Amino acid sequence: MSLSAGFLESALARFEPLRRIYVAYSGGIDSHVLLHLAASSPRLHDRITAVYVHHGLQPDADAWAAHTAKTAEELAVGFILLRVDAVAGNRESPEEAARNARYAALKDLVDVDDALLSAQHLEDQLETVLLQLMRGSGLRGLSGMPESMAFGRGRLLRPLLQTPKRAIFDYADRHRLHWVEDPTNQRSDYDRNFLRNEVLPLLKQRWPGCAVTVARAARHCAEAETLVTELAGEIFEQIFDPADNTLSISRLRMFDGARQQLAVRRWFQVNGLRMPSRDFVLRLLNQVAAARDCGHPALLSQGCWIRRYRDKLYCLAESEPEIPKVTVWPPGRIRLPIGERRVLHWRQASAGIALETWLGSEIVVKPRSGGEKIRLPGRAGRHSLKNLYQEAGIPPWEREKMPLVYLNGRLAAIGDRWVSAEFYATKKDGCVELSMEDPTLR
């Protein structure tokens, strides 16, 4: 395969018109060749901007930044330097942290009708698929890297993905390009480098065409993954309730085990979580979904609790319950924060607590202490909060967070759910209606 500007133009033709074309440029040989190809095209040149992401992790990072800026100037294309914090967090490898920081910064650049070009090639695809295989990945991982995907508000394109590394070297030699070498590429303590330096040379001795054949297998996996994703979507629609982000257990059980696993994985995707392991999915189905409801079974994954209540599976952020403190509601104030994330407020309505009573009372908001009872409009007797919560299907972990509203020391309302019959009134625009919201969910 011989690389040329025409090759790149042809690869991008089906995505035209592209307003701006960013090239992820590290200074290494692969991205240098890609940038040179783009800059050599009269049709593309004026839309090209080279982007160098400065991770600050290597002693030579400043020198590499200077090299990339100089190269962009010599090629007469735009240049952007982005500085990122690539320090690894919890459960992140250094490689993963650098990649996540780099992609987050690049996504902010790419707007509608823009594209980011990345220089992964055929051997990169081989390494990716083998790494996913060693991790026990499913079809999604074994599909490798796609040639095109949504990115930011535009697209990420990998026009060299079917190009052998040899062709990239040949192009660089032919055009006498000068690139930087990352010394960490020679260290085999990183998994990808170990594959590249130690394993792939042996594989290629035995199977010279392994990069091509593995890439073909990855495309087969990608096609199968597309079909599986469509099936998962059809199942998911039947069991998912978007109102509270839950899965119906009874509907989930209508499907066989394999389809249940597909639905759970789709649920994780909808919640922006990494794909769970097969072992975790099976534990979720067997220990939570299939457990007796009275024990409130739960599993923790990726900072989220998977809980069951009655016929529903919930995915909840791992955090301490936001129990309201005893708080006096200042006269005339409409909104009252009852924690870091929730706000209780009132508005005039035609039914609720009488407005004149509300304005003339000392209002105190308290947490539940136990044993509280309330008489409701239109219902006989007094009802315990426990029974009301069970009747309304409020999960146990939500009950302690419910604020109780007292007027002059008497229980007048339970959050925005119930109003005491003692205070309930109806009068056009002469009443107070309570509501509770989480501003962080807007």
Short overview:
The chain has about 450 residues and is an alpha+beta fold. It has 15 helices and 21 strands.
Describe the SSE topology.
Blueprint: H1 5-12, E1 20-24, H2 29-39, E2 48-54, H3 61-74, E3 78-83, H4 94-109, E4 114-117, H5 122-134, H6 139-142, E5 148-151, E6 154-157, H7 165-174, H8 191-206, H9 210-239, E7 240-241, E8 246-248, H10 249-252, H11 257-270, H12 278-289, E9 298-301, E10 304-309, E11 312-317, E12 327-329, E13 335-337, E14 343-354, H13 355-359, E15 363-366, E16 373-374, E17 383-384, H14 385-392, H15 396-399, E18 404-407, E19 410-414, E20 418-419, E21 424-437
Parallel strand pairs: 1-2, 1-4, 2-3, 4-6
Antiparallel strand pairs: 5-6, 7-8, 8-11, 9-10, 10-11, 12-15, 13-14, 14-21, 15-18, 16-17, 18-19, 19-20
Q: Would you count the extended β strands for me?
A: 21
- CATH second-level architecture of the largest domain: 3-Layer(aba) Sandwich
Would you identify the regions where 5 or more consecutive residues have pLDDT less than 50? none
Radius of gyration: 30 Å
CATH-assigned homologous superfamily of the largest domain: HUPs
Query: Given the C-alpha coordinates, what overall shape results?
Result: elongated
CATH class of the largest domain: Alpha Beta
Strand order of the largest sheet: 3-2-1-4-6-5
Strand content: 15-25%
Average pLDDT rating: 90
What CATH calls the topology of the largest domain is Rossmann fold
Number of domains: 3
The description of the largest β-sheet is: 6 strands, mixed
Amino-to-carboxy terminus distance: 52 Å
